[in-house]
């Protein structure tokens, strides 16, 4: 597992602004900070990919340069992931993309939370590394449900679960329910989930803060 804020970097400023209730009202700033963090995390993930030497012709001579062997497939969990996903795509600009519409379906009787899929569209994942992007890793159920759905498009060689903020419960759920090679990447690992399964201290509802509240 990679946790970005375990080292000092400018990224902690962007995370702090995402959390700050006084700054969250500025939606364009909120979306821009998600995009910035997507770029930073894409750079970190790129360090672990497989590279092959390619010869580039400069004005003076040919030069071998290591380039990514196979581009990943980047998948966004709609709708909250869109700005974060765009940041990832700014760096993996040759990657194919997929989209999953996953949302919580709450049961008033016992407060159970299930994930319902409203949309799924992705290219072949066979033999590819997949970056699954969702800013909040709360229960982990949307990540696991999304991967279960995506497996019908082929088995990836590795899955990178990418979030801005994660909970210990969500990390544990993924670890116990995903049976192919994976790594969890997050900007911050928070304390716990509250009784409504929201991350504490967290930042609230990332989708509503980025795009406005939904009915």
Compose a concise summary of this entry:
With 215 residues, this protein is an alpha/beta fold.
Structure description:
The protein is of the alpha/beta class. It has a single domain (2-211), classed as 3-Layer(aba) Sandwich (Rossmann fold). The chain is 30% helix and 33% strand. The protein is built from 6 helices and 12 strands. It has helices spanning 11-19, 27-46, 82-91, 141-150, 168-177, 206-211, and strands at residues 2-3, 51-57, 62-68, 73-78, 96-106, 113-121, 129-133, 136-137, 158-166, 182-189, 192-193, 199-200. Strands 1, 4, 5, 6, 7, 8, 9 and 10 form an 8-stranded mixed sheet that branches. Strands 2-3 form a two-stranded antiparallel sheet. A hairpin with a 4-residue loop joins strand 2 and strand 3 (62-68). Helix 1 runs antiparallel to helix 2 (27-46) and helix 2 packs across helix 3. The longest helix has 20 residues, at 27-46. It is globular and about 60 Å long. The two termini are 35 Å apart. The relative contact order is 0.17. The mean pLDDT is 93.
CATH architecture level-2 label: 3-Layer(aba) Sandwich
Total helices: the number is: 6
Tally the structural domains: 1
**What do the pLDDT scores average to?**
93
Shape: globular
Keyphrases for this structure?
215 residues; Rossmann fold; 8-stranded mixed beta sheet; two-stranded antiparallel ribbon; 33% strand
């Amino acid at each position: 597992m990679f946790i970005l804020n375990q080292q000092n970097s400018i990224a902690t400023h962007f995370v702090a602004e995402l959390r700050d209730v006084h700054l969250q009202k500025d939606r364009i700033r909120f979306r821009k900070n998600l995009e910035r963090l997507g770029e930073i995390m894409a750079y970190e993930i790129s360090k672990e990919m497989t590279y092959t030497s390619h010869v580039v012709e400069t004005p003076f001579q040919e030069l071998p340069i290591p380039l990514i062997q196979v581009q990943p497939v980047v998948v966004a969990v709609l709708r909250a992931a869109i700005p974060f996903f765009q940041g990832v795509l700014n760096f993996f600009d040759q990657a194919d993309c997929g989209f999953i519409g996953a949302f919580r379906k709450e049961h008033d009787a016992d407060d159970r939370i299930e994930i319902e899929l409203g949309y799924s569209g992705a290219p072949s994942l066979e033999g590819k590394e997949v970056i699954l992007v969702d800013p909040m890793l709360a229960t982990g159920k949307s990540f696991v449900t999304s991967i279960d759905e995506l497996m019908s498009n082929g088995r990836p060689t590795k899955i990178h679960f990418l979030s801005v903020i994660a909970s210990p419960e969500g990390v544990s759920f993924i670890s116990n329910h995903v049976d192919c090679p994976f790594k969890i990447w997050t900007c911050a690992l928070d304390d716990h989930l509250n009784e409504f399964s929201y991350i504490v201290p967290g930042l609230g509802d990332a989708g509503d803060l980025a795009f406005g509240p939904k009915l």
